[in-house]
């Protein structure tokens, strides 16, 4: 049952975790279990879609200038001599998001069976190890793409392939798999994070739209105030988190997120699951 406290708590969790590599899906499942909420209820699923849309809006605001240029609604950056500068375009996003969307569509029934606290805890550990390895490997060699606009079509597609793991394994983290995959593809940490955040917009819109179509009949109009509250909280928190992360990205590495994931999995297992 939705209450003001539940709406605020879940909105904060969604905003805090959606775009950093700790897995928002995993945190939502663990939070629901901790609060004694049925994570499989149709009302909660619809509420989660609504607060995801709040997080999407936040990332769209942060990257609004880049998005407008990609859509041809703002002037492109020019080199000296008025030659167009190479820039990220919509084809990069299509190549990056297609593997994940196809996988989600084909394996949607299989994925739903994996939504459990136990699966999330294992994914937190596995994803943390993968991120730690990607950072170690990435630091051993120089990046070929230092900025977002340097990312090639091949790198965008490879990052999309890495993203499949997060689709098939709730708790692995979409941003964690894409940022780590980018670093393994010789994209700089900052550029991989930027690409992960921007690519999240169409992917999350597609996923949220699909879920809304599946559950719109379960929409509880009596709970519209709670939905709005969760949306606003998620938007505000996600905006602050993304801006803070990008500002301090050089000091907040994947290794730090990996350590957090290990600690969370251990503490939750010891104090809740045992």
UniProtKB/TrEMBL annotation:
UniProt membrane topology term: Multi-pass membrane protein
Catalytic activity from the UniProt record: di-trans,octa-cis-undecaprenyl diphosphate + H2O = di-trans,octa-cis-undecaprenyl phosphate + phosphate + H(+)
Cellular component GO terms, alphabetical: plasma membrane
GO molecular function, one term: undecaprenyl-diphosphatase activity
HAMAP family the record matches: Undec_diphosphatase (MF_01006)
Family from the record: Belongs to the UppP family.
Protein name per its UniProtKB record: Undecaprenyl-diphosphatase
Lineage: Bacteria, Bacillati, Bacillota, Bacilli, Bacillales
